[in-house]
């Protein structure tokens, strides 16, 4: 059952991208789909799936807009998505400079406003650090090439 829900969400995402659907409409549809399936929001699984979908096989502007709208309407945890993007984009920033620029833009739009709403900047940095440690990318020097 759960696999069918996520398959449906990803099909909805692909359809929205093909049809150039407004990201707000897409986010409403995804939210309704997840709510009707009993998935609690914000969804950690959604963050993982969207970031995996975008980086880098489907690295197109509309996919990033969908991800950003999902962050804005809180159907997945924004800090988690930013951390996941960081661990995928930073090591490949020279190969995918547009993805890195989009990540920085998302970071500027969401991370600092989130810190004022959801606690201190220490919480933001802690979440980022945990994600980096989990991926083994806690040393920026490892990525310089």
TrEMBL record:
One of its GO terms (biological process) is regulation of phenylpropanoid metabolic process. GO terms for cellular component: mediator complex. InterPro entries: MED33A/B. PANTHER family: MEDIATOR OF RNA POLYMERASE II TRANSCRIPTION SUBUNIT 33B, OS07G0681500 PROTEIN. This is Uncharacterized protein. It comes from Phaseolus angularis (Azuki bean).
